[in-house]
Amino acid sequence: MASIYRASDATAYERSMGRWSARLARPFIAFAGIADAAHVLDLGCGTGSLAFALDAPRITGIDHAEAFVAAARARAAGDPRLAFDQGDAQALPYPDAGFDAALSLLVLNFVPDPLRAAREMVRVTRPGGVVAAAVWDFRGGLGFIRLCADIAAVLDPRGAAFRDCQLAAPLSAPGELAAAWTALGLREVVQEGLTIRTDFADFADYWEPWLAGQGTVGAFVAGLDAEARTTLERHLRAAYCAGGPDGPRSFTATAWAVRGLR
Question: How many separate domains does the chain show?
């Protein structure tokens, strides 16, 4: 799945998926329970949705996408609490036990080896510190993407392959995150579902962000030929409107969240 995730345009990403990451950030922080953490790692920080929602004396974000890191750095200019690095989640450039908490919001299932990245989160967290992550529930909890994936699957074999890849994201099955955290030796492991609303002003607000080609859905849509893309748009518009006029729609979006203590 990591091979089809496109992360080259921070502005386009914010319109397609970043806005929902920002909406999920605060419920995830509350779930993680890190009020006393002095130095927090944000693994897979992207454009900073989680980092900018955190209230900690020191926050270090790291992401593989140079464009996203550059955007986060520009936004953080002048804030001494925040630092953003470009690097590999699977081989963090930080010492053992250097953070009071390590968090990851909506990224582990896009890392080539997510369990290796999770082990790195544990390694850099001090004993007793919190290690927490969240990933979208693609199969059962992400309505606006499932709508697109299911329609694409019945239109074209490429769409079926896209849906199967998207919905089979690692660590996104019920209980899978908790099992991984337990296997890593973390204590007091808890997994819960966190739900937000994804609100769209109209069909254009739903469809047009994918055309910039960011993320997995955007990469799929932008990679279609013009005829296939037009066909998908027509069927998606019909599903979005569902017999009614174009206009606002709201979908539920659920992420699985897990936390544990090193």
Answer: 1
